[in-house]
Each structure stands twice: as structure tokens, then as C-alpha cells.
Amino acid sequence: MHAWPASEVPALPGKGRDLRIHDTATGGRVTLAPGPVARIYVCGITPYDATHMGHAATYNAFDLVQRVWLDTKRQVHYVQNVTDVDDPLLERAIRDGIDWVGLAERETALFREDMTALRMLPPQHYIGAVEAIPGIVPLVERLRDSGAAYELDGDIYFSVDADPHFGKVSNYDTELMRHLSAERGGDPERPGKKNPLDPMLWMAAREGEPSWDGGSLGAGRPGWHIECVAIALDHLGMGFDVQGGGSDLIFPHHEMGASHAQTLTGEFPMAKAYVHAGMVALDGEKMSKSRGNLVFVSRLRRDGVDPAAIRLALLSHRYRDDWEWTDQVLQDAVARLGRWRAAVSRPDGPSADALVEELREALSDDLDTPTALAAVDRWAALQTAEGGTDDSAPGLVSRAVDALLGVAL
């Protein structure tokens, strides 16, 4: 599976700062100091509907992580999956009377278009669950053969008790885990499981549903969590720098994935930091496909909204905060974009060297984008009120906003 084209990231004078970011597992900030190549895995979409603002906010957060690393003169090895076979996708295809493969391909193509328009840097490896199946089957077999997984009516389940570190990503109590498991694709009430929290690794073939050759597992398809584990281990190995996604993935997805990987390798932890973006609401409720309360990136683009304004709307909120999308949020972003573009259109202006360092400091401080935007606002206001004599300043501001915030002026 191919990703989307990369926009050029301008090089800035000097060097950026190491990223201090909130780690869900420890509950505090950690300073990430990767080697020459920083490694990040971000969980991708289940492509049964177009990119909504919740998606956009999540991928914007991890795009910023990449930009901070690139500004430190590191390379970035970024991997993202596509869950191109799963129950919600199959259910949507049946509801709409269309082929599930065609639905996945259509929505993945639209996602690529949205990411390109928003100037999100693409992953080096963009892997679908279906194409990862040949690598998933041996991992499930290893877990089963080691006693860390078991068969139940043809399905294979992972035993969470096999991982002594289970629970150390979310730090949730058992009651909350059971609630979230039932809410987010698990089956804690299924009779015969060793532990109600045990997640499925391999689903035996069901009549009328797609299935693949699972070798000694029999025909079927993979569970959700092992998909990401297989892709991450194949392309990044253990101990990569950041595991990312929305806060709704903390449990069960990232908790279970970490336990799968740690049990397979005997190493801990799977990732040095677990980083999660907040949820975006509309009309007081979390924006989600199940509720249908969605604002789509593609629809805004069709309505003539500049993608740079959409991105500024996302940047106006701290990445891990929950927030609500409103018309006012977008109107404020459109106005801000106009002010910034007017400011950099002049032939000269106030010196921008200090501004570049303010942006670097804000972003290295747990991706503090509101502070970063306020710094550019101050420079633009000074430019409007007083101007300046530095003929390199407007170009430097434009390059810095592009390189660090992903907004093309």
C-alpha cells in the first residue's frame, strides 16, 4: 500500500530542541532523545468513512512530532497502518450494499487526499492489515505454541496473564478495563475465556465474511491488536520512540499491543513513550462515526475552506486536550491565516530570529501549539503596526511556520 506525497520541509538556521512530551504510561513528561533516526508508529484509520476532524487532530499531533525531530537534524522512520479489514468496515459495506474491498480502497484514497491537502508528512511504510497477514500468522502461532495464547471454538485468544507488564500502559483498574473492552471491540462476556479481558488474536472464518489461510491456525482473519504489533516489529523493532494515536486507543488497543509484543520478545517496553491525542467533540459529544456527528475534512475542502485554515484550527488547541469543533474555531483560524499571510507578504519586517526560537521552545514543550501561534500573532501584529527593516524576516517567518507548524503561507 502506498502513502501520500511528502511536502518539502524547509531547513531553518540553527537546530531545534529535544522533545519533552507527555507519556501516558508514566503519567508525566519524558524527554525524547532518539539516535540519528527517530522511530514512531501511529495507528491508522479503519477506512469505512472519510477523514473527520478527530482523525485530522490526531495525525496533526504526530506530524508535529516529526517536524520537531526533523528540526533537530534527525531522520524520522514513521510507520502507519490501515485496518482494511475489520467488523466496522464489513458492517458498513453490508449496510450500503457495496463491496468491502472497494469501500476500503475508496476511503483510503480520500484519506490520502486529505492528508496531502493538510500537508501531513507521510509514513515511510503505510501497511494494510490484509497485506500484513503473512507476518501476523507466525506471531500468533508463536504465542499459541508458547502457552501465551489458547484456542476457543476455533478462535485464538491471547492470555493477558502471560505478560507481567500487562496494565502498565493505561494503568486502568480491572473494572474500567472490562467496560472499555466491551465498548471498544472486545468480548469480555464470552464464556470459556481464561480472563474476560483476553483479546482475540485470530478469528476463525465466519460464513459470509472474508478469510485467509492461517496455516496451523486454520482459515480466518487477524484480531485488531496483533495487526499493529506485526507491522511495528517488522519495520521498527522493539523499544521504538513513540507509539501514537488518539486517547481512545489507550485501552484496549495500545495496552494489548504492548503485551503482545513484550510477550513475543521478552523485552520491555514496546515503546519509550505512549503519546495520545485528545478527542474532538461536536455539539457536546465526542466526534465519532458511530454517533454520526462528524465534520469531514473533504467536505470543508469542497466548500472552499483553505486547508491551511483547517490546520490552524487544529493547532489552536493543545494536542492532548479534548476540545469542541465550532464554526467560530474555523472562523478564527481563517482570520488568523489572513493576518499571517498579509504580514509575510511585505518586503521587510521586524527581525524574526527570536520568533524561530520561541516556536522551537513552545513545540519542544509537549507540543504547545497555542503558545506557538501566539508568538506568530505577536510578530504579525508588530509587522502591521510598525513594520521593520529586516528584508529576510518575512521569508524566515514563512519558512518557520511551514517547517514547524506545517502551514504554508
Q: What features would you describe in this structure?
A:
It is a single chain. With 409 residues, the protein is of the alpha/beta class. It folds into 2 domains: 245 residues, HUPs (Rossmann fold, 3-Layer(aba) Sandwich), CATH 3.40.50; 99 residues, Anticodon-binding domain of a subclass of class I aminoacyl-tRNA synthetases (Four Helix Bundle (Hemerythrin (Met), subunit A)), CATH 1.20.120. The protein contains 13 helices and 14 strands. The protein has a 5-stranded parallel beta sheet, with helices on both faces. A 4-stranded antiparallel beta sheet has the order 6-7-8-9. α9 crosses α10, α11 runs antiparallel to α12 and α11 runs parallel beside α13.
Amount of helix: 40-55%
| N- and C-termini, Cα separation | 31 Å
Q: Write the CATH architecture name of the largest domain.
A: 3-Layer(aba) Sandwich
Poorly predicted regions are: none
As for the CATH topology of the largest domain, it is Rossmann fold
The structural domain count equals 2
> For the record, what CATH class of the largest domain applies?
Alpha Beta
Q: What is the count of β-strands?
A: 14
